[in-house]
Specification:
Helices cover 42% and strands 19% of the residues. The protein is of the alpha+beta class. The protein has four domains: 3-159, DNA ligase i, domain 1 (Orthogonal Bundle); 168-241, no CATH class; 254-448, DNA ligase/mRNA capping enzyme (D-amino Acid Aminotransferase, Chain A, domain 1, 2-Layer Sandwich), CATH 3.30.470.30; 458-597, Nucleic acid-binding proteins (OB fold (Dihydrolipoamide Acetyltransferase, E2P), Beta Barrel), CATH 2.40.50. The structure holds adenosine-5'-triphosphate.
Length: 598
């Protein structure tokens, strides 16, 4: 496909506010492509390079783009910077400058989507001395060949900020739309069954069902580019080829919450009860030779935790295997876990060997998804048995202690004891449940200390913007944050609180650095808010927020359509959740559920 054709269609999506129309536009793009380039196209639509779990970092700073634009057009860097201050988006600056260029370069040639992508791939591999110049030259070449609108999107790809407002879920919608006819032909019985229930609406429901199937594949193989390629190659039956694969992370199962142990037992019945350890989650892949470790966010952390890699090689006896654990800093001398803040020091990328000696990790292994084949459809009790047969524990790798009970006072006692030992609470798990990849279902229910005190639970909310600070805080330029929940159905973030409490100097300093880099001149397309902060920011950072109560509010937009708006009373920042991304924000549906539970 010509990059110019794609750019024109991207612009249409960018201008389109309706999610439904965006889906149709995206599926029109899919209609114009083929199995050779569809994966690349999907990554570009999502503004990412490769599947989320192996995304490439270009390392292109704004400065580099400014030099490339200046080199390609002969315009002064200062003038470009001035334009940037005016327009607030480097892509628009590029578009404007190129459209003012009298003549296109003599040797300019038409850009092809796959070529643009591979130029970026080449650029991403450049490292070390002189690499900035080489990267600039590749950008100059692309910009020289670009029309104004192409220049806009090349720059936005370089910045990994397409501003299209497309989410994974919209892409899945478009794929299901494109292959619906084929799916119907291959599943005529399902179609006839649905027809009995839904009559004329049958096509719509069939598409939902098909989208659910795509989503369930995504949850065990989170790479929409590859999934789309399979669909293009083999039609809807191509989904059958996608299964759990060692070294491709599975989307982690998530826990529900309920307000009391009694309610949890009512819902789950007799449960496996384990401590909820306060470290960070690691998904481990091992084939007898290589180990890969993924965070909850699917980030590859294998290089950062060499001690965990060694532990796995020592303890795990059967493979290929995929299992999950909570990694916690462990003080061997005192036989005690370090607190969460200390454990988190392990998540840094420098002095790895020093810090791994200082704060060694213990892996508390709680689930298994694969052993020589997928296991996620097996009941938890069976998975646990397989897990225990696959490894020999030592001081760095253990299985969690547990009780199997429906006796509420006994579980309450267990809860109090494990809290005293520094854990965050307990996890109650349905022994018959399958592994619910990527979903928050009632297979696991968490019960934390905060539920039992006066304070309520915490929410993980997106930072949508900030208000400038007064007094002491003026030094950082941030007085409060505007935070919001994620509405999955509409693919948008809905404001829920102005958050000014709990912002320590350290937090403010970190936030200032992080948020200035992602400032937006205008309210991002996927935000709805009743109040306007002084500065909007791109959807990127997640904060954990404690509150006293969820109340109805005409000011905020969270669940506006469902209930007229919800807000948090006395919100305060607990921490910046660097282990979560914009896709893992608490959903409006969850907030609504918690509001009803109060
Ligand atoms: P939270 O903010 O409560 O930690 P979360 O949003 O990060 O939650 P949840 O799905 O709500 O994720 O809670 C599950 C998390 O609890 C897991 O990601 C895991 O890191 C942690 N955890 C600690 N102990 C266990 C355990 N025994 N079994 C499963 N998960 C555990």
């Amino acid at each position: 496909m010509l990059f110019l054709d794609l750019s024109k269609m991207l612009e249409e999506i960018e201008k389109e506010p309706s999610r439904l129309k965006m889906m149709t536009l995206a599926s029109q793009i899919l209609d114009k492509t083929n199995e050779k380039e569809v994966d690349v196209l999907i990554y570009l639509l999502l503004g990412q390079f490769g599947a989320t779990y192996k995304e490439i970092d270009f390392g292109i700073a704004e400065k580099t783009i400014i030099s490339a634009l200046s080199k390609a057009t002969g315009m002064d860097k200062e003038k470009i910077e001035k334009e940037l201050r005016k327009l607030g988006d480097m892509g628009l600056v590029g578009e404007q400058i190129i459209s003012g260029k009298v003549q296109r370069s003599l040797f300019s040639k038409k850009l092809i989507v796959a070529e643009v992508y591979s130029s970026f791939e080449k650029l991403a591999k450049m490292a070390g001395k002189g690499s900035i110049d080489d990267k600039t030259n590749i950008l100059v070449q692309m910009i020289n060949n670009a029309s104004p609108i192409e220049a806009k999107y090349i720059i936005r790809i370089a910045q990994k900020n397409m501003r299209l407002g497309l989410a994974n879920s919209t892409i899945m919608d478009s794929l299901s739309l494109k292959f619906l006819k084929d799916y119907k032909e291959n599943n005529i019985e399902e179609f006839e069954d649905l027809k009995k229930d839904y009559g004329e609406d049958v096509e719509r429901y069939l598409r939902y069902k098909f989208k659910e199937k795509i989503e369930s594949k995504y949850n065990i193989y989170p790479d929409l580019g590859s999934i789309a390629k399979k669909l293009f190659e083999k039609g809807s039956n191509g989904l059958r080829d996608i299964g759990i694969t060692p070294f491709v992370p599975v989307m982690p199962a998530l826990a529900e919450r309920l307000p009391s142990i009694g309610k949890i037992i009512e819902k789950l019945g007799k449960s496996i009860v384990e401590p909820k350890f306060d470290g960070f989650r690691l998904q481990c892949h091992y084939d007898g030779k290589n180990v890969k470790l993924f965070t909850r966010n699917l980030e590859d952390m294998s290089e950062i935790f060499p001690d965990a890699v060694e532990t796995i090689k020592k303890c795990v006896k059967k493979y290929p295997i995929i299992f999950e654990c909570e990694a916690i800093g462990y003080n061997e001398k005192e036989d005690k876990y370090y607190p969460f803040q200390v454990t988190m020091k392990r998540k840094r990328k420098y002095d790895i060997s020093g810090v791994s000696k200082q704060i060694p990790l213990r892996l508390v292994v709680f689930d298994i998804m694969y052993l020589k084949g997928g296991l996620i459809d097996k009941p938890l009790l069976e998975r646990k048995k397989i897990l225990e047969s696959a490894m020999s524990p030592n001081k760095n790798l253990i299985f969690p202690e547990n009780i199997y009970s429906d006796d509420v006072p006994r579980i309450q006692k267990f809860f109090e004891r494990v809290l005293g030992e520094g854990n965050e609470g307990i996890m109650l798990k349905d022994p018959n449940s399958v592994y619910t990849a990527g979903a928050r279902k009632f297979a696991w229910v968490k019960y934390k200390q905060s539920y039992s005190s006066k304070a309520k639970d915490t929410l993980d909310l997106l930072v949508m913007g900030y208000f400038s600070g007064k007094g002491q805080r003026s030094k950082f330029g941030i007085g409060a944050l505007l935070v919001g929940s994620y509405n999955e159905k509409e693919n948008r973030y809905e404001s829920i609180a102005k958050l000014g409490s709990g912002l320590t100097e350290e937090n403010l300093e970190n936030l200032q650095k992080a948020l200035t880099e992602i400032k937006e001149k205008e309210q991002p397309k996927e935000y709805v808010s009743g109040i306007n902060p002084h500065v909007w920011v791109r959807p990127k950072y997640v904060v954990e927020v404690l509150y006293d109560e969820i109340t109805k509010s005409p000011t905020h937009m969270c669940a506006k359509e469902e209930i007229g708006g919800l807000a948090l009373r006395f919100p305060r920042l607990i921490k910046i959740r660097s282990d979560k991304n914009k896709g893992q924000v608490s959903t409006t549906k969850e907030v609504l559920g918690m509001f009803k539970l109060q």
